[in-house]
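Quick check before the chapter quiz. The format below is the same one you will see on the exam, so make sure you can read both the input and the output lines.
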Amino acid sequence: MKKAEVVLIPIPALGHIVALVEIAKLLVQRDDRLYTTVLVMHPTVDPSTTTYNESLAASTLPDRMRVINLPRVESITSDTKPNNWLSSLVEGQKPHVKEYVSKIRTQSELSLDAPRLAGFIFDSFITGLKEVANEFGLPWYAFSASGAAFLGCLLHLQALHDEQGADLTEFKNSDVELNIPSLVNPFPAKLLPSVLLEKDSLTTVLEQPRALAEARGILVNTFLEFESHAVNSLSNGRTPPIYPVGPIVKHKRDGHDVGSEGSSNYRNIIEWLDDQPPSSVMFLCFGSGGSFRENQVKEIACALEKCGHRFLWSLRKSPPRGKWEYSPSDYANFQEILPKEKNSHGDNEINVSADGIMKAIKHVMEQGKEIRKKVKEMSRISEKTLMAGGCSYSSLGRLVDDIIDNQP
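Here is the expected output.
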């Protein structure tokens, strides 16, 4: 039986680590010829990431899967520019990655029955590691955690920049309508993320979609039924094969996991939710790395208070400006940020006003019956797509076959 080992490397952000760990589990559970190794870069200072990494060491992983924590990169300091820290991290980790991959290859050569190193799956943010894959003569795949629509947006903007000579920084504050193939409707260019509109960050960001052309395939955290237009738009012959393998979620918790069922916070939240009427609570969460400045937080808080709807808010504290070494963190005391009364609109850092947020909340909670109906239906579909016969199940199968059949 031809055995193959795949090395997966996420960026040191909680959502990305969890996703690639789950993909590693799916691969070994899907085919007993596959072995997976996840190389986890040393996190910055995000406590939740550190806790999760420690939980992996304490948990029982599936057979044929292992997780290895890479050493800290000492070359990154507080003087490293925010736009360069990820590329600096990749460069600093390359020697460690090469060392561990060399060990894996050596071990595989000691026995005819041992799995052979078959390739890599890199987080799409660290495709700079493709040089390691090329050095070992191995294929590599990319993993996009952000979905097919955003992936298509990045690829289109990179083509505008590289092939048509467009200066994307000119889109800042521009009302020009952009027609992105992966999106159904056009939108004003000024709504693009700021990292795509600033010269310093743009150069780094465009390296990601530019490198994807060399990937053997791209795994995407989505499913065909959810983003059919976006997925189909990427099947244009110009993009490597797309594998929609989502939704990537943790189906089972253990006592060591972040936010585990054993924690007092988790129990308190569940008890409170159980006491609320069905479908009456709004959940606000912007990811482990998502945070807002003080004035925007106050606008959101004022909108929630005015609406009067029950809510559960995962609120993270923004890091100091320009400090890459600080990640969003928990507030020690919410009173330090939440307003006692409505504040003025005098600060130009407010992106969305309380009135605008309130209108959106009311639309979803009071008038959005059709939206909520679609969400429930999509929830049902998202479970079926991962089962035998489902689109994501089949997509994962195609990926497994490609890995096995093209093993060096």
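If your answer matched, good. The two ends are 15 Å apart (CA to CA).
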